[in-house]
Amino acid sequence: MALRRAQLLDTARRWTIPNLKHFQETRQPTVWLLAPLVGLATGVAAILFRLAIGVFQWPWLQTMSEHVAVAARLQPWWVVMLSPAVGGLLVGLLLRYALTAKRTVAVPDVMEARVNGGRGLDLGQGLISALTSALSLGCGGSAGREGPIVHLGASIATVFSQNLNLPNAARRTLLASGAAGAVAASFNAPIAGVLFAQEVILGHFSIRTFVPLVLSSVVATILSQAWFGDVAAFIVPSYSIASYLEVPAFILLGITAALVAVIFQLTILSTDWAARNVNMPLVVRPVVGGLLVGIMAIWYPEVLGVGYDTTDAALKDQLTIGLMLLLIVLKTVATAITLSSRFGGGVFSPALYLGAMTGGAFGLIAANVFPEVGSSEGLYAILGMGAVAAAVLGAPISTTVMVFELTGGFELSLALLLTVAVANGINQAVLGRSLFQAQLESRGIVLHEGPHRTIMKDLRVSDIMRPLAEGGPAALPEHDRERAIPADESLETALRAFDTLGAEALPVVDPYHRGRIIGWISQTYALRAFNKELIAASVEEHR
Predict the structure, then answer these.
(1) Positive or negative CA dihedral for 52, 56, 57, 58?
(2) How many beta carbons lie within 10 A of that of residue 432, not counting itself?
């Protein structure tokens, strides 16, 4: 009996001690303690950001509410036309003199920071960027508020990880905790905040990150509910599926939503490319963009701002089919102009808007064609809202849950899952990446092909070379100069050089003095370092 008890204790020790040791070594207790503080700070920031939008909105609309379209119709036409341009001038000045990157920042920048081990975000610049984005949305810029808030939350999180010598995995978890808290506080959607952080920011689901993400998300949501109240973003009637004969219609709506999402993304990317090739002073860009949006808003103020009031109207069956079809086009154009003109803002709210218009119009058509089985257009608006947003963000799981939390429509789970799956699958088949991933790819960061591409581009030759022995840098012989690799080149460049030259080792030179050799890099050691990083990434994703 004593022997068996000893065996059980030994087995328990072998199971628990290594895990507890790993838990300590990866600094998880520190992360767990910091996550609620991140959620608290992020919740405060999200509240202030939403209030700031209202403050900038008040001088020309005399309201701080989200009923922008109704308020704009009460203003003289020239106020509606000129206010975005005047706001654009202030945005341009902030871009020119306050923002070092000469642009506002959003979700792709957080994803880039995650690639860099949770580093690269500056709180000071993040605050200025958030102020610029609040001004952009408050003066009528056609964009969303989620991108700036996510970036601000992640920037706040990086402050908590500074000077603590945390491993990269812990830094990334705190970064994602800031994003989770931001989404949760902004939309009163704590579950979606956690899933968004895992699905979009981290790019994987893991048990180790779940606890800190939940802690941050819950604390931020409690704070947001205490200020704004525990209400869904959209209060909609209780909808239900009229008949399972509508399943083909749900699939067709998914296809339609995918088409809208693809066109929306291509319009944003192509407009941004075209704007970059127009020679225009930076301060003037938002002025011109604001004026164009203001001109559209004279007749259709529904394109202004975040657009939640118009989205809500579609969910409540209050818009005509003609208006919804027209707003799909106008909102796409207005958002593309807004973002390419360097206004601040995100794409999630416009994607919800376009989805609601698409679904609402589709529902009216379906009801006219099959009146005996067609459900309300409001139901289809909810489905379209989730489908377009999921395809644009490349986040079907978190978007599905977010739509449930935004509308309270859990009864529509079957239809929503089917519609989102079809839209996301077609978008993936056509574009192969989300809008965020496409924006990062334009910066040379490829995420949709897997972690190996990121590792090969992120790992520098200087990280894996073997320095020269005593004596320091030396002059490189003339016959070796064509084979030399600068220390600041990537692992990808080094591996390509090994393959091209057929060499097993290459000299590494000072990037500023190409004639000075500072070390050597071997193909075997380079591949070993690559495999080590790849294994570490796999372990991080699965623990």
Answers:
(1) positive
(2) 11
Question: For 111-165, how does the pLDDT look when each residue is reduced to its tens digit (9 = 90+)?
Answer: 988 887 778 899 999 999 999 999 999 999 999 998 999 999 999 999 988 878 8
Write down the pLDDT at residue 405.
Answer: 77
pTM value > 0.90: no
Dihedral angle of Cα 68, 74, 77, 78, to the nearest 10 degrees: -80
Neighbours of 64 (CB within 10 A): 16
* Sole residue written with tokens 């707003």: 327
Backbone angles phi, psi at 442, to 5 degrees: -65, -15
Question: Which sign, positive or negative, has the C-alpha torsion 266, 269, 272, 273?
Answer: negative
Report yes or no: 511 and 465 within 8 Å, Cβ to Cβ: no
User: In which region does residue 468 sit, left (phi positive, over 0), alpha (psi from -120 to 50) or beta (all else)?
Assistant: beta
Question: What is each CA distance from 321 to 311, 324, 360, 366, 367, in whole angstroms?
Answer: 14, 5, 7, 11, 12
> For residue 425, which amino acid is it?
G
Contact 517, 484 (CB under 8 A): yes
Q: In the chain, which stretches have pLDDT less than 50?
A: none
Distance CA 83, CA 140 (A): 7
For residue 134, what pLDDT is reported?
97
Other Cβ atoms closer than 10 A to 7: 10
Q: CA-CA distance, 91 to 229, in Å (whole number)?
A: 31
Structure tokens belonging to residue 146: 């989620």
pLDDT, position 21: 83
| Alpha carbon distance 84, 81 (integer Å) | 7
The pLDDT value given to residue 301: 97
**Ramachandran area for residue 106 (φ above 0: left; ψ -120 to 50: alpha; else beta):** beta
R_g (Cα) of the chain, nearest Å: 26
Residue the block writes with tokens 């593309």: 336
Could you give the CA distance from residue 220 to residue 43 in angstroms, rounded to a whole number? 4
Task: Report how far apart, in Å, the C-alpha atoms of 46 and of each of 315, 454, 502 are.
Answer: 25, 31, 55
Give me the amino acid identity at 4: R
Residues 6+ positions from 284 with CB-CB distance below 8 Å: 92
The answer for residues whose C-beta is within 8 angstroms of residue 393's C-beta and 6 or more apart is 200, 347, 348, 351, 399, 434, 435, 436
Q: Which two tokens stand for residue 461?
A: 């030759």
